[in-house]
Design brief:
Layout: H1 2-16, E1 25-33, H2 45-54, E2 59-67, H3 68-76, E3 82-86, H4 90-95, E4 103-105, E5 110-117, H5 129-133, E6 136-139, H6 145-148, E7 159-162, H7 165-173, E8 179-183, H8 184-193, E9 209-218, H9 221-240, H10 242-248
Parallel strand pairs: 1-2, 1-3, 6-7, 6-8
Antiparallel strand pairs: 3-9, 4-9, 5-8, 5-9
Amino acid sequence: MQKIGGAILLFISLALYPLHAEEQDTVTLFGTSIPGMFDENEPGPYNILYNRLITGVRASVVLTMLPIRRATKVFSARGVDCMFLGAPNPEFYSEQGLKAEEIIYSNTVKAIALKVYAPIGAAPYENATILFTGNYVIDMGVGEIKPLGQIIPVDREGVLFASTLVDGFKLLDQGRVEALVAIDIDVQTLQAKDKRYRQYPVSETFELRRTKDVFVCRKFPRTERFIADINSKVAELKSTGLLDAIFAN
């Protein structure tokens, strides 16, 4: 009788708590805070995109929002599993101490362009000459400044930095600078909120750089599963047109 009772208890225990049941992965992630684009207090299209991408992944994602520089620094010090928005730039992370084989990237979530905006009433800039000869401002929303210094001067006199895109345009209005360097999608989001910002001329063809927004993770089996799920969601959103719709509104 005791053997039968024990067998029944064992059966019930296995039914409720299978020996081979897999626990859900936990992935820690830093979101690079950009007010008006991807931010807790001033959310934007990337908040919507992030929520859509995370829904249904096989992991419990612990999101912490941090300024871009701090998020990159802690990620590079191996203090977190993943970062979004990141860039597929192995050389940059290698300089920070992370070897290429330690990192994996998602497929491209969104392609963005770094552009040069002129004051209202001026002609659009069709090359980067003004950035070498005049005063200009860089919107800090562009992310890490060091890689930018490979294509334009960032540490000479006459180069200013704006903590927000609005501040950058104010410097243009005040005549303190002759150009603003910013990411096109950031400006488009601001223009959707306030049509006045559509007055600033920008070339349709000239770009300082075109880059990609991706999830970047330190390579572990759980982050590989996470990236695989993200890639599937990105493909789904692109094929249905939902990804473009997020940024069109």
